[in-house]
Give the backbone structure.
Amino acid sequence: MVMENPFEGKEIWFGVGSQDLYGEEALRQVAIHSAEMVDYLNNTGKIPAKIVLKPTLKSSDGVKEFMVEASANPNVIGVITWCHTFSPAKMWIRGLEVLTKPLLQLATQHHKEIPWETIDMDFMNLNQAAHGDREFGYIVSRLGIKRKVVVGHYTDPEVVEKVGTWARACAGWDASNNMKVMRWGDNMRNVAVTEGDKTEAERVFGASINTWAVNELVAAYDAVKDDQVKEIIEDYKAKYDVDPALLDAKYDSLFIAAKEEAAMVNMMRANGCTAGVDNFEDLGALPQLPGVGPQRFPSEYGWGFSAEGDWKTAVLVRIGAVIGYGLEGGASLMEDYSYNFTEGDELDMGSHMLEVSPSIGTIAKPKLEIHPLGIGGKADPVRLVFSGKPTKDAVVVSMSDVRERFRLLMDVVDVVEPQGSLKELPCARAVWEPKPSLKTAVECWITAGGSHHTCMTTSVGREAWEDFARIAGVELAVIDENTTARQFEKELELSEMYHRFNNQH
């Protein structure tokens, strides 16, 4: 049970701009320098997708061919451009207008320092990125194309880090555009924020969201073979502190939980889905409200999951799992539950009745236990119980329908240890310090109409989600250490006008 590597076979194409004006020797040097740069970036190990250098771009036809091929290749998740020499920007117009993949403009140069004693006009003519990148930047801005701009020498660790973060966002976008979400049942009745326009979601995010009858899940449950159930139970025993009662007197309950996980996994795989949603109000003949199985969707399979029909959060969790692949931490459904209003020690505790995933990191080995649950009307469910591991600069992200578009909302948080045992709370949870403060964060969140369900990511933080939102062309409102409630409200108003005026999603 290992998440498939979302970067396997994926490429980022590197297009270098130049022109024929400077002769063959200059172009030969451009190619050599570009190859050195790409090799360096690939060898850092910080960029999860392979960067592939393409032939130097010298003409409008060449640029268009490059962009068309990149857009048509399903293995290409993004394009990096750099102008080694002066590359007249009109030659980029036709190509840029057909590009459908995320774009990063790398404003760099081959040499790190000006060779003060030897620099001459030949050197100047060859190494013109300082104004070549500005010419290119002008046309990208004029065309209104969103891109990430990274500035600095290509060997600078910060530059490499930013390129790597953007590559992760590109993979998240690729995953979003290839996502199928399986909904067992509909939304929790009378809840507003978990409703949403599934057709618009497919237009904007590429995710296909559809519903399967719970009866189909029941049929899949009945079809599960005992060997598959026992294999899952052995995995439980290897990874969690299993309550001895579940291996003895309450083994039947454990078997049912594992069998429900197997049924959900089998249906997901059979339909090529990478995110799932259920609803405690629509369980059909299932014996338990699924607990440990959905908790393991992000941690074991790299899939998104959310509860109560909330497909929007399930989509975010899948994206978060892909963006953070290979890094410490992960992504999970989270829900604000209780505040600590003690002055100077203000905290937010998130949880959910069953579905928070250990993918976010745990303080201790998760306990696999069985406890009563007053919601759902089924047998006592088996679930993982743990507290989230302290993590600096994690984020919680929500997606809301704001009538004519989607709004992403993010708060930067520090996950901290609980200040007590929580021994009477039989569910998974995390405690965090919202930035800039609990009061300001909550006021801003409510003002923005953020959901009570969120995706928490402890593997990647603010920048990765900013890159994703820019790629998607979707509004992202950010609450961080510099936020004030007054300014945040004004920024929301400006964003509202911008998105309506610009006809952005």
User: Anything to note?
Assistant: The mean pLDDT is 95. Residues 43 and 245 are 50 Å apart (CA to CA).
